[in-house]
Task: structure prediction
Amino acid sequence: MVMKRRTAIIAALSIAAAVVLILWKPTVLIYGLQAAGLYAAVAIPMGLVLGIVHIVNLAHGEFMMVAAYAAYFGCKALGMDPLLAIIPTAIVTAVFGWVIFQLTIRRALKAPELNQLILTFGLAIAFTQTINLIFTSQTYKIPLDYVSASMDIGDLTFGVWSFVFVAVAIIFAYGVKFFLTKTMTGKAAVAVGQNPRGAAIVGIDVYRTYGLVFALALALVGAMGALFLTKSAIFPSVGSPFTMKSFCLIAMAGIGNIPGILGASVLLGVSENFLRAFRPTRDWAEIVFFVLIIAVILARSLKGRKS
Amino acid sequence: MKRVMFALAVLALFVGSAYAQGTIKIGGIWTLADITGKQGSAAAQLAVEEINAAGGVLGKKLELIVVDDEGKADKAAAAVEKLATVDKVDVFVGGMASGAELGKIPAFKKYNKVVMSTGAAGGTVEKGLGPSPDSDFYFHLHPWDYNQGASYAEGWDAIQKKYPNIQIKKIFLAYEEGAFGKSSWDATKILFGSDNRYIVDGASFKSALLGGGDYTAVLEAAKAFKPDLFIWAGYDADALPLLEQSKAMKFSPGIYLGAPPGWPIDFGASKLSPNVMLYGMWSTAMNNNNPASAKFFKNYVAKYKEEPATYFAPLAYSAVYILAEGIKNAGTTETTALIKALEATKYVSPLGETITFKPSNIIKHQGITRQKILQWQNGEQQVIWPFEAATAAPVYPFPAWK
Result:
């Protein structure tokens, strides 16, 4: 009952804030949601790995970068649109992720967490430097007409392409939820995530499940790599900022709370764009990220102490 | 068997040393993972091979030994040490990022060999070098940041005078929030805003290169300001996404100008590139009216099977030719004599101007002082100003988005 009331209050406050923004600064809401979609779509696969495999993958953004390079050169070689490269890139990245998991991460799952962090950090550096050696730091971008699609509402003109990330984030969040709750493999993954020893006793192949979940997450990362190519130029270090942002969004949402990543991303995206909309606070937008994460973790700690 | 091996090793050492006596060694330091360093060092090597094919210098072959500074000051300093003590080079060439160049200065001063610098626009480097005579070994080819700023102001004045339909009153600078963008903003405010001839405004954005890539807020601010000249100072990673978002927001100022250090591969092929202006020093269009440029371009493409995509390539190529000419005229690589010979340099460069050395604000040997104003037309960069190097007339205004 208390939970329902709190949810209703949060929903009412969010709707009121959205209405105020639409009337006062509509671009804050528009661009805030677009940014939130990108953040969430990149963070959700990391949330899946963290929730089930219990490993902080510090090479998360670099996997996306490698996928984006694969998509770019695939598109160039075949004269293909990045949108058509989404599924092939997802498959290739899933296979790549499965191989990397079996060769490296699997062997560190029972090691102390610090070793796991060092391992994935090492992978991140290895990916970045390898791409740098092969392709140099030169940036690559495929020019696309449809990314400049716009909409006019009265005097307001804004780009609409980035809303695709909102749609993708929602599909990812509810697709992952569907996988975990409605499929046998997903249910096995949840069991492994909650109690690997218990899951092994009832006959679930724990390492195979970890590998599958990691490959599935990498497939989503691969799909995002191809889609990211439509919006951004790519270069060796393009993925690394997304690792930190994704991890912090997961921390804000709570580990294992995939739909919560959507809410945290909206809060971050709208807050950043709100500050950017005013001259005196324009340069503060980068700080909001840290302020939010400190506030959320502090609030959670206080709540835990009370209960 | 061991005796034979020993004898061969001694012979190899002897032959190597004899061969080394017949070469003039040039120590090249660039950031090789970057396109400017990759193509700059390649162009320098091309110049060395051309000079050697023509008989070398003072009867000796030139040898270029390249070390990667990775764009870091500590690595750059170590590169100077290695080249000076292990390779025992006679002169130095190269450079791009000011931060890395600052790291080299103490070692350059220690070894006091002639340096032909191809980069480092930052005024902090000039301050680090200090005044003559302590910095006389340093020949700086690239314009300093204040040279560049002054040349932009001069260029826009000249363009408005020659083309009365181009009128600039309001200038907006979108600058990346790092040191490069901030210094561009400070310079723009002083150059264009100090005498109230122009109304200047600006806003920062986080470059895609540093984890940003959302330009909507800065473009909203620019659109509200309604500038005649919109300049963005960021990196090549920002070029196309910024244009795509500008089009999505239907932001089309009279002049749309980008000032990144380099442009993305195939930018000219993009449908959004036509009529975007830029600052630079060289373009392939100059091959049509500059024989030195055409010769450099032809030989570079023949050797490397790719087009030079950055002006740091012809700049490094020029640096080697200037050094070779100086050594020839001095008859030696000894620093004092070589400095004197280089002071008389008059090199007809592929960059569209004859390079000579004059004092700048602090140092005694400054080469090029002007940047060029160019415009992307039909997939190629055309020189708009200086008029003596111009390859096309400007297209104005920047067409409204369709």
